[in-house]
Structures are given as C-alpha cells and as structure tokens.
Specification:
The structure holds two protein chains of two kinds.
Chain A (H helix, E strand, L loop, with lengths): L6 E4 L3 E2 L4 E8 L21 E8 L2 E8 L8 E7 L4 E9 L4 E10 L1
Parallel strand pairs in A: 2-8
Antiparallel strand pairs in A: 1-3, 3-6, 4-5, 4-7, 7-8
Chain B lengths: L1 H21 L3 H17 L5 E2 L2 E4 L10 E7 L9 E8 L6 E7 L7 E6 L5 E9 L4 E8 L9
Parallel strand pairs in B: 1-8
Antiparallel strand pairs in B: 2-3, 3-6, 4-5, 4-7, 7-8
The chains are: A mainly beta, B alpha+beta.
C-alpha cells in the first residue's frame, strides 16, 4: 500500500544502534465526535480513527486505542529504540474500515 | 423604597435557593462513572500517586486541541517497563480519551498528543507497569471554550 497522503511524519533517516529516537506523526482526519450538528440541526455522524500502531521491522513498538476525545487531525509523538535498519510502519484504523499507512525507511548504524 | 429593596432581596434569595435546589451533584456521580471506566481498562486496582508526570496547561486557550504529554519514570527494560498509559477526562461526554500500549522497544515511557476538553475538569493519566502496578497523576484544567462541538 502506498504512503497515505493524509499522513505527515518527522522521523530521522539515520540513527545509531540503541539510540532512542522520537517519532512525530500527524494524520489529516476530522475525528468527528458524533456530538456535533450541521447547519440544519441534523447530527453529524460519528467517524473517528479508533486504533493506531507503530511497528519496527514488524515488531510492535507502540499502539493506541483512540476515542472521540482525541482532537481532529491527530498528532502523536512517542519514542522508539533504533534496533536495525529497515522499515518503521505506521497504521491508523478508521472505524469505517478505511486504513491509512505510512512506511519510513531508516538506516541504523 | 424599602419594599422594593426587600422584594429584590427576596427575589435574589429565591433565585439563589432555586439555583442551589436544581444543582445536581455531578461531581460524585461522574467521578464514580470515571472510576468504573478506569476499572474496565485496568481491573480492580488501587492506583498510587507518583511516577507519572502529566503535562497539560492549567488554563488552555480552548478545549478543542489541547496538547497533553504523559511521561513515566521507567527504565523500559524487558523485565521492567510501562505497558500502558491511559488518559481520562472526568468531565467529557465519554471520559476515556486514549489508551497507549508501550513495549520495551518504545525506549522511553512518554507519549504526546492532543485532546478535546468539553469543560473545566480534572484530567487523569494512569500508567500500568509490566509487573501490574498502577500509578496515577491528576491535573485540574479550567476550560473557557469547550471542545466537543454542538
């Protein structure tokens, strides 16, 4: 799957083995709570991202369950131990079934 | 004149009385509700104060998109790490905001994100360690512009 154009990341391209790196991400998404009404007074249906995961060469680094209290265009930053060169894969699950992915190549020396 | 004053005073007193009478007791009911949600997430545990640092502004500009950071004192070693961080906002329509699940590969027990706050309330951050201990930090936030739409 190609990298989603909804996703922005800030992740270093290189790291030393064992170094703790920061991963910053933002995904463009309304995170519609289901509490809002449109101009005509009709409730806007809920639609949020409910799950996020980060894996490094297939090994889980961190994951999250999100609820409607997470802001629109969810930003997250967290950390990871640089283990080996390869791929950092970020995945967001929309509750409609849509999936947004981003894979970042990293060199570990 | 005296009559008018008295009438005003009585009205004021009446209004105050009414206000007190209709004031529900959301604090206790809601806190209980939040405690039930916390138990669903972590089981029947008694959290200890400490270890968790909760960074959130006491008076945010609005409750729409408020940065929050949670960090926990932990070596993040395979036999001693923070396995979960749960953030709950006591006064939100659904108080559970996010649950983060960490691993020793996370390296540092810290997450930063942004949350919605419907009104002034207490935000809680829980940390569950790999040996099953639960730690908590609480922060009161005063919100003037709520962030849950509607």
């Amino acid at each position: 799957m190609p990298n989603s154009d909804r996703v922005k990341v800030r992740i270093p391209a290189k790291a030393k083995k064992g170094e703790i790196i920061e991963i910053k991400t933002q995904v463009s998404h309304d995170m519609e709570t289901g509490q809002r009404k449109d101009a005509s007074g009709k409730p806007i249906p809920r639609r949020i991202i409910t799950k996020f995961t980060c894996a490094w060469n297939g090994e889980p680094v961190i994951s999250a369950d999100w609820h409607q209290g997470v802001s629109a265009n969810p930003f997250s930053s967290f950390f990871a131990v640089a283990s080996a060169s390869g791929k950092i894969k970020l995945t967001w699950w929309d509750e409609t079934g849509e999936i947004y992915e981003y894979t970042h190549d990293i060199v570990v020396e | 004149m005296v009559d008018v004053l008295n009438r005003r005073q009585m009205l004021a007193a009446g209004a105050m009385g009414a206000a007190i009478a209709v004031l529900p007791h959301p604090a206790s009911a809601q806190t209980q509700d939040v405690d039930a949600l916390a138990r669903e997430l972590m089981g029947k545990v008694t959290p200890k104060e400490g270890k968790v640092r909760l960074k959130i502004k006491e008076v945010p500009e609005s409750g729409v998109n408020e940065p929050i950071g949670v960090s926990v004192d932990s070596p993040m070693l395979p036999n001693d790490y923070v396995a979960a961080i749960h953030v709950l906002a006591e006064g939100n329509p659904y108080p559970v905001i996010a649950s983060w699940y960490l691993t020793p590969r996370s390296g540092r027990a810290e997450v930063n994100f942004r949350l919605r706050l419907a009104k002034s309330q207490v935000v809680r951050a829980y940390a569950v360690t790999s040996d099953g201990q639960v730690w908590v930090a609480r922060q009161e936030v005063k919100v003037t512009i709520g962030g849950c739409g509607g």
